[in-house]
Design a protein that fits this description.
The complex is a heterotrimer of chains A (about 400), B (about 70) and C (about 290).
Chain A (H helix, E strand, L loop, with lengths): L5 E6 H11 L4 E3 L7 H12 L6 E3 L4 H13 L4 E5 L1 H6 L1 H4 L1 H5 L4 E6 L13 H4 L7 E4 L3 H16 L7 E6 L7 E6 L2 H7 L25 H30 L7 E4 L6 E5 L3 H14 L4 E6 L1 E3 L3 H10 L2 E6 L12 H10 L7 E6 L9 H17 L6 E3 L8
Parallel strand pairs in A: 2-3, 2-4, 4-5, 5-7, 6-7, 10-11, 10-13, 13-14, 14-15
Antiparallel strand pairs in A: 1-8, 6-12, 9-11
Chain B lengths: L7 E5 L9 H5 L5 E4 L2 E4 L9 H5 L5 E5 L4
Chain C lengths: L2 H10 L14 H13 L3 E5 L5 H4 L6 E2 L8 H12 L6 E7 H7 L1 H10 L4 E6 L34 H6 L5 E5 L4 H13 L4 E6 L3 H4 L6 H10 L6 E4 L2 E4 L8 H5 L10 H21 L7
Helix pairs in contact in C: 2-8, 5-6
The chains are: A alpha/beta (about 400), B alpha+beta (about 70), C alpha/beta (about 290).
Chain lengths: ~400, ~70, ~290
């Protein structure tokens, strides 16, 4: 049996299905919702063809989907589910359970804008809404990263230092339904990387039952433990990504990727697929001699405070590209910008922090828009003053 | 262990008791246990509900007022 | 050995020991004693937040649950995991109150039945949301007082067993704590069947139904004897009445309970008429396949 990986052109959802298959997931409980549907129907086909030996519970709604997934995890099976927007919000009560109960399930959030004022196309509110819950969140730029991140997600979540659920997030349509070449790692190689699932805190077998101690601690103590698990996860995320890179040739730089930031005076921060387009814009501007860099915020929870602070010390302006809305939030900012602001707070000298709303409700994020954003950040770095602190780019007249 | 506060306590009249076991069957707490030939009530956990007295076909159980401590 | 030591030795053999937080005379507390006797130790419990959940804290079986609005869903997950792991020998027993099964998670229970998920779903029905202080549920009977139906509930009790019967599940049964042999026989039978099994137990609640705690079993017995809570099973669609008591007037049952104290003669007559009709319909179909 050769250990050569295979490359196939496939949509992001199919890549996710391969990630689940390679992770030898044992129980899936999922409910269809655009733009996730092909992920679960591909999994159903894989099971039907005998390629994936898993039980698939065809649940009647998302609240049940995650409940069944989490219970299966407590019962000893590696479990998976996926949803988007309305499904995520409908599932909200269930979403709070796995982190507090330390159940390392993996759920793909195929980003989609939440109704009303949403639609089928992507933005990041559905996953960012979960930022308080204790789920680890990793944003994927393309189909390859989705496949790789799912496998990494199980390693991260099931690590004894962590025992938290992980949500690989990727945008509907732009990633989920866009076909790109994806390398499928060899199953044996993945088996070496990802051992079988065994949870030290849980056993539902009557002959030796085990469950995490719950009653004896105060709520503050119990929550603090989850918080600490989140903090420890940073190191685990980095370790796992590095090992993955060594084995499979793709390392995603852990928490944050810095693209051409070495001598940058201005940086743009993006999450998810916008990063791909932003890379091209940065390259173009670099050709023109502009000292612009790109920061890909791969992991949103735990928030990469240290990495952002380190970047903040080196640059004069940071522009956070938020693909989300938080009505009434401080200074009219988006979620990413708000978190970044607090990360930068302790620095002796602050870079300027600017905020750009783009791609809301899944509208196309274009090169002209990102050029406009980059130029605004560069101008701020140059003049020491922003043109505007916060811009709804889709409603602005774009700079050339 | 916390104290169980109850207003009434069951008392089994071992003469009238026919050892049918109905009290044991219907005690919600499971504190009526046959030990040797007789039924005994674990007063550490009895809540004094009185179901045993109500169900006993031979009126062998009486609910007696608890003495205040 | 002292008496206390003898008690403790006895409790060691049991799956539940005394010392729970239920009200004195709680029908749920008694129900659990009987259910566990029949289930045995190769069992996992799922669920538990309704009133009878207080009884669960002293049960010596592995347990898992989320919240009362998660009825059956976790049991589906656990059953799937056990299948993958080759442990279908373990009985998965999911329990919930009438609020959970009948109202907030009704869709879930229906879906588990439709999928024929491999576990036993039990409804421990005290006919109202008791844990939150006696509010009406879909399974509160017509005429009953609750804090949200202070002049008596105007709608009828939702008949979950018959609804689930039409889902073509392999087995379902109604149970009563007043008939322990009947109860345990049905639980043991359910254990041996594969697929989705449903057990529905109405448990009198002295606190919410307003009767003296000593009368719990008496009230439960009268519910069966008046045919208000008939005992039957439906196995592969065949209905079988497991008790056909000589019918007592509903008033014998109603007048014992404070929650029915305000009923007028007309209302009692309406209840009697309704029960009589249902009894006739059940007798007509006894022994027949009721899948329509």
């Amino acid at each position: 049996m050769s250990r050569m990986p295979m490359t196939k052109v496939m949509e992001g959802n199919e890549a996710a299905a391969y990630g689940v298959k390679l992770s030898r997931v044992e129980v899936i409980a999922a409910y269809p919702i655009t733009p996730q549907t092909e992920l679960i129907s591909t999994l159903a086909s894989m099971i039907a063809r005998g390629e994936l030996k898993a039980e698939y519970i065809k649940v009647e709604g998302e609240h049940t989907a995650l409940a069944a997934t989490a219970a299966a995890s407590a019962a000893g099976a590696r479990a998976f589910t996926a949803s988007a927007a309305q499904g995520i919000v409908y599932m909200e009560e269930s979403i709070w359970m796995p982190p507090g109960m330390r159940l390392p399930v993996v759920m793909c959030i195929v980003n989609r804008a939440i109704a009303p004022l949403g639609g089928l196309r992507p933005d990041h509110n559905d996953s960012l809404l979960q930022r308080d819950t204790g789920w680890i969140q990793i944003y994927c730029e393309n189909g390859q990263e989705v496949l790789d991140t799912i496998i990494q997600a199980y390693r991260i979540g099931e690590d004894k230092r962590v025992y938290l659920p992980v949500a690989p997030c990727y945008e509907g349509y732009v990633v989920s339904a866009t076909a790109t070449p994806v390398e499928i790692p060899d199953q044996e190689e993945v088996d070496d990387f990802l051992p079988p699932y065994k949870h030290e805190m849980y056993s539902l077998y009557p002959e030796n039952p085990r469950s995490p101690p719950r009653l004896m601690r105060s709520i503050a103590e119990a929550r603090y433990e989850v918080q600490q698990a989140m903090e420890r996860a940073k190191k685990v995320i980095e370790e796992v990504d590095r090992e993955y890179g060594e084995r499979f040739g793709r390392y995603y730089d852990g928490m944050v990727e810095q693209y051409r930031c070495e001598d940058a005076e201005a940086v743009m921060v993006t999450m998810g697929s916008i990063t791909g387009t932003a890379r091209d814009v940065v390259d173009e501007l670099r050709e023109e001699g502009k000292k612009i860099g790109l920061v890909k915020l791969r992991v949103f929870r735990p928030f990469p405070t240290e990495e952002i602070q380190e970047i903040g010390k080196r640059v004069r302006a940071i522009g956070f590209v938020d693909r989300n809305t938080s009505y009434g939030a401080v200074a009219g900012c988006g979620i990413g910008c708000i978190e970044t602001a607090r990360a930068l707070y302790p620095l002796d000298e602050h870079p300027l922090l600017l905020n750009y709303f783009v791609g809301l409700g899944g509208s196309d994020v274009t090169i002209p828009q990102l050029r406009h954003i980059a130029k605004r950040i560069l101008k701020a770095a140059e003049t020491g003053k922003p043109v505007k602190d916060v811009e709804w780019v889709e409603l602005e007249k774009l700079e050339e | 262990m916390g104290m169980i506060l109850r207003a009434f306590r069951p008392v089994i009249d071992q003469e009238k008791c026919k050892r049918c076991g109905i009290c044991e069957t219907y005690c919600p707490e499971g504190v009526i246990v046959k030990i040797g030939d007789d039924y005994h009530i674990d007063l550490r956990f009895c809540k004094g509900c009185g179901i045993c007295a109500n169900e006993c076909p031979f009126d062998a159980i009486t609910m007696v007022r608890e003495k205040p401590e | 050995m002292s008496l206390v030591e003898k008690f403790e030795e006895h409790y060691k053999e049991k799956l539940v020991r005394p010392g729970n937080g239920c009200c004195p005379g709680c029908g749920g507390s008694l129900a659990w004693r009987m259910l566990l006797e029949a289930l045995g130790k190769n069992t996992v419990l799922y669920g538990g937040a309704p009133c009878a959940g207080c009884a669960m804290r002293v049960i010596k079986l592995p347990r898992f649950g989320f919240h009362f609005s998660f009825v059956g869903d976790g049991a589906s997950g656990i059953a799937a995991a056990f299948k993958v792991k080759g442990r279908e020998d373990i009985t998965v027993f999911s329990s919930a109150g009438d609020g959970g099964v009948g109202d907030i998670s009704f869709g879930k229970v229906s879906a588990c039945a439709e999928r024929n998920d491999n576990f036993i779903q039990c409804c421990i029905d005290n006919e109202a949301y008791m844990n939150t202080g006696i509010q009406k549920s879909g399974l509160t009977p017509y005429g009953a007082w609750t804090t949200t139906t202070p002049t008596g509930k105007k709608s009828k009790k939702k008949m979950i067993p018959m609804i689930l019967a039409q889902h073509r599940i392999p087995y379902l049964a109604t149970l009563s704590i007043a008939y322990p042999q009947d109860l345990m026989k049905k639980v043991r039978k359910a254990k041996e069947i594969r697929g989705f099994r449903y057990l529905h137990l109405v448990m009198p609640c002295p606190t919410g139904w307003r009767f003296p705690a000593s009368k719990t079993v008496e009230v439960a017995r009268l519910a069966v004897q008046t045919w208000i809570w008939p005992l039957y099973e439906v196995e592969k669609g065949i209905l079988r009445l497991t008790m056909k008591p000589k019918q007592r007037p509903v008033e014998d049952y109603l007048r014992l309970q404070g929650r029915f104290r305000h009923l007028t003669e007309d209302e009692i007559a309406e209840i009697q008429r309704s029960v009589d009709e249902e009894k006739e319909r059940l007798l007509e179909r006894d022994g027949k396949n009721i899948w329509l």
